[in-house]
Amino acid sequence: MPADYKEILFEVRDNVAWITINRPEVRNAFREQTLDELIDAFRSTRDDPSIAVAVVTGAGDEAFSAGGDFHAMMKLNRANAAHWNDRMLGLAMTIRGLPIPVIGMVNGWCMGGGHELALWCDLIIASDRAHFGQTGAKVGACPTVGATQYIPRLIGERLAREMIFLCRTFPAKEAVEVGLINKCVPHETLRAETEKWCEQIKGYSGQTLRATKKSLNFESDQLYASWQHGMELLAEIWGSEESLEGMNAFLEKRKPDFMKFRNARKEKVVEYLSIIASDGNKAPPKH
Fold first, then answer.
1. pTM for the whole thing?
2. CB-based burial, 98-135: b 16+ in 10 Å, e otherwise
């Protein structure tokens, strides 16, 4: 029997595992409990070898996932960062480590950490209403849980930097053109088209898919060190005044003031430079 999940829906039907983030009131943003339930649901598919493929999506028609829930992320700091970061890394490695293909069925906004969730999947099929993007620079977060590792591999270094530094978003049709996703279909046919993919996969050799997924992941699995590095970078971001300004501004529907942090740092640099200039004019101590 499936676990009694509170924030996701989980169903196994016709040898397909359907996993749905069920928080449409916050555009399927995830928090700690959501991540724990997603990890558990994906891992549970290992206990049923008759499952041929897993599909992850978001409830409702508005969003696949808007990423991390700000109310959860604003509680993070250097001391407790691992409790969030380890969950993100755990979900990513669970999806990548499954012996079956994982399809991201993107039905709407797929942003920030939600887009990183899509990046961990093997295949992405999207509604023509879907949009993909990285918003970390807007809100004071750091997209180092897959975005910095995989986006350059998919769409090239220059376009990846534009996506991350300029928070560029891609509508689904354009996302197909640049290689960010596999397929864009009319919104009304998204489920049916995804089911066609599932039926196709069910007709293929499970052991072949298992072996070839492992082989396909070989090179990018070596980016694990970058993930660990990214977790440490992210731990320094959580709880900082700058990150809190970005998230509070988003929640308050105002433009964040990041320039005040640049100006404060400038004052410290000017002060430092004046000190060392003054020290340089002093006679060296006698020995």
1. 0.92
2. bebbbbbbbbbbbbbbbbbbbbbbbbbbbbebbbbbbb
